[in-house]
Structure to design on (146 residues):
């Protein structure tokens, strides 16, 4: 078997495979670029959402939480927390109370630190989580409780 496999054949397999996977990569990149504007509802971006994202990054929320399945798995998924906690009807009140009451100091439970955010910052972070929950993510993550 090794006598019939030449360096030229190995080179052709290498280059052929490289071209094949490069074409797949380019095709997937084109598809994603074409589909994202319909899925991410970027027309709904506001200054409040942008400030909320900045707070999300500045406080390293992804270090404990996941967002759309990405991040750490120490704390709950927050990509769908807006829907889980009442939507328009009650999310902001819940979120405001939750952020201000941290840490809960319940023995044996993971503790979220208090970031000492003011009401405007909490509202901005809530707007960012609301915006995230409205993205079309094909029901991802699959577990609604995260």
């Amino acid at each position: 078997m090794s006598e019939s496999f030449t360096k030229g054949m190995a080179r052709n397999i290498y280059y052929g495979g490289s071209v094949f996977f490069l074409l797949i990569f380019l095709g997937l990149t084109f598809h994603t670029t074409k589909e994202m504007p319909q899925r991410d509802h970027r027309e709904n971006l506001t200054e409040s959402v942008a400030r909320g994202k900045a707070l999300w990054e500045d406080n390293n929320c992804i270090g404990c939480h996941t967002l759309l399945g990405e991040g750490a798995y120490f704390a709950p998924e927050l990509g769908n927390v807006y829907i889980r906690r009442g939507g328009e009807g009650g999310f902001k009140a819940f979120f405001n109370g939750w952020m201000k009451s941290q840490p809960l100091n319940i023995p044996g439970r993971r503790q979220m630190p208090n970031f000492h955010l003011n009401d405007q910052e909490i509202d901005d972070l809530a707007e960012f989580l609301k915006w995230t929950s409205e993205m079309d993510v094909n029901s991802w993550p699959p577990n609604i409780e995260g």
Observations:
- The two ends are 51 Å apart (CA to CA).
- Residues 7-39 form the longest helix (33 residues).
